[in-house]
């Protein structure tokens, strides 16, 4: 059974890339359903890798949000939420844990849904694209010149 | 076709240049032993491997991530090593943090 679909109609995008000649290639639209379905089909080791890459990518979001002081209250709230995501992701990634493939997909779905509500969807889109690009052998959600 | 101006009067639009990269961790290597170890590790790696690891592509999990003003939020140590080697780091493609 597939994870529930609360984020229907909302969109996530992969990384935007800028080249030395000034060309900017906007991030590609992510197919959330495809990625979550592919995630569920990964073996336990690959799922763990996916979740680790996802969480690691979010640490860059925290850097970027906290670097310039003072930090606006809204960005502190975003950091708080992203930390919650990382807390859950790293628990789920533990190879000695009890999370099934479906549990992992449900967690990702929940994080995606919450990201729209909390204004962190651009960070979640980036992390999802990077994690998928590293672990899922499908059409890659990356921009290319 | 005559343009009506002399060639030396033509104004050429400059090729847009990206802001130069600026590392945000400049002093961390003296203060933090872990950062120092990371620097030593990357100094042991070949240039093409470092450059490849910074490229925004599906196989990379730690590509160069940069704010529009050039500040580096991912890839600081690798950029430092490339600078030490004289590599033109400002020509690298950047994953832009909005």
Describe the structure.
The complex is a heterodimer of chains A (145) and B (98). Chain A has 145 residues and is mainly alpha-helical. Chain A has helices spanning 32-41, 44-66, 73-93, 101-118, 121-135; strands at 17-18, 24-25. Chain A contains 5 helices and 2 strands, in the order E-E-H-H-H-H-H. A two-stranded antiparallel sheet of chain A has the order 1-2. In chain A, strand 1 and strand 2 form a beta hairpin. In chain A, 39% of the residues are buried. By secondary structure, chain B is of the alpha/beta class. In chain B, strands 1-3-2-4 form a 4-stranded mixed β-sheet, with helices on one face. In chain B, helix 2 packs across helix 4. Chain B starts with 21 loop residues before the first strand and ends with a strand. Classes of the chains: A mainly alpha (145), B alpha/beta (98). The interface between A and B is medium-sized, with 27 and 28 residues.
Query: Helical element count of chain B?
Result: 4
Give the strand line-up of the largest sheet of chain A. 1-2
- Count of helices of chain A? 5
Gap from first CA to last CA of chain B: 44 Å
What is the number of E strands of chain A? Answer: 2
- Supply the helix-strand structural class of chain A: mainly alpha
Helix/strand class of chain B: alpha/beta
The shape of chain A is: globular
Counting copies of identical and different chains, the oligomeric state is heterodimer
Strand content of chain A: under 5%
Q: Give helix % range of chain A.
A: 55-70%
Gross geometry of chain B: globular
Uncertain stretches of chain B: 1-5
The major β-sheet of chain B equals: 4 strands, mixed
Order of strands across the widest beta sheet of chain B?
1-3-2-4
Estimated share of beta-strand residues of chain B: 5-15%
């Amino acid at each position: 059974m597939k994870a529930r679909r609360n984020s229907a109609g909302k969109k996530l995008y992969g990384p935007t890339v800028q080249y030395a000649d000034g060309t900017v290639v906007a991030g590609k639209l992510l197919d959330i359903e495809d990625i979550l379905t592919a995630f569920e089909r990964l073996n336990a080791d690959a799922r763990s890798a996916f979740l680790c890459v996802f969480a690691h990518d979010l640490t860059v979001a925290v850097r970027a949000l906290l670097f310039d002081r003072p930090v606006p209250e809204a960005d502190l709230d975003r950091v708080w939420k992203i930390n919650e995501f990382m807390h859950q992701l790293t628990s789920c990634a533990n190879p000695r844990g009890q999370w099934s493939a479906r549990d992992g997909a449900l967690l990702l779905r929940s994080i995606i849904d919450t990201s729209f509500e909390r204004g962190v969807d651009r960070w979640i889109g980036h992390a999802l694209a990077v994690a998928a690009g590293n672990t899922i052998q499908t059409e890659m959600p990356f921009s290319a010149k | 076709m005559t343009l009506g101006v002399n060639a030396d009067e033509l104004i050429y639009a400059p090729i847009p240049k990206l802001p130069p990269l600026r590392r945000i961790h400049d002093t961390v290597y003296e203060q933090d032993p872990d950062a120092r170890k990371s620097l030593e590790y990357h100094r042991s790696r070949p240039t093409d491997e470092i450059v490849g690891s910074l490229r925004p592509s599906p196989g990379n999990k730690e590509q160069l991530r940069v704010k529009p003003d050039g500040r580096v939020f991912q890839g600081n140590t690798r950029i430092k090593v490339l600078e030490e080697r004289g590599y033109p780091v400002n020509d690298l493609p950047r994953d832009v943090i909005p």
